[in-house]
Write a structure and sequence with these properties.
158 residues, alpha/beta, Rossmann fold, 14% strand, binds ligand WE7
Amino acid sequence: MAAGSTKSVSFVCLGNICRSPIAEAVFRKLVADAGVEDKWVIDSAATSDWNTGSSPDARGLACLRKHGIETNHRAQQVTKEDFISFDYILCMDENNLSDLKKKANSVKNCRAKIELLGSYDPQKQLIIKDPYYGSDADFEKVYEQCMRCCKGFLESTD
Ligand code: WE7
């Protein structure tokens, strides 16, 4: 695969322990199932540095496992370089979006398209809500939204 045809995406939420690791793992699965792993660089990150180094939330891991998906991700904060190196930075809610746009303003040559992952939802649920203070059902809802949106996003980049 020529380097020029590689696409890249980082999924971002507040702490990189609940929503964005689910989105990253779901997108990896879809890309693997489509046999296009060598065409994609995939990562996830946080707007905050609160959880840096932490594993994903146990409820998120259980939800993913239930759907046959594993992840070894550790939380990391989005960096200035991410705005230059990634084609897409896809986030979950309006707070993420405004935090990311603020950070992008301090980067000279921002290349990344900063968007809500929910903008790719065929069911038009724009916001993927923080399940941190929620239940297992809220994590399941995040998973379902991520699955629909990641499918829509992958198709949009064909
Ligand atoms: C969260 C969170 C989430 C909330 N993951 N944390 Cl105690 C805190 C403070 C600043 C940044 C982070 Cl990340 C955290 C831990 C990790 N998904 N969601 N906190 C959250 C939700 C609703 C109202 C307030 C908070 C801090």
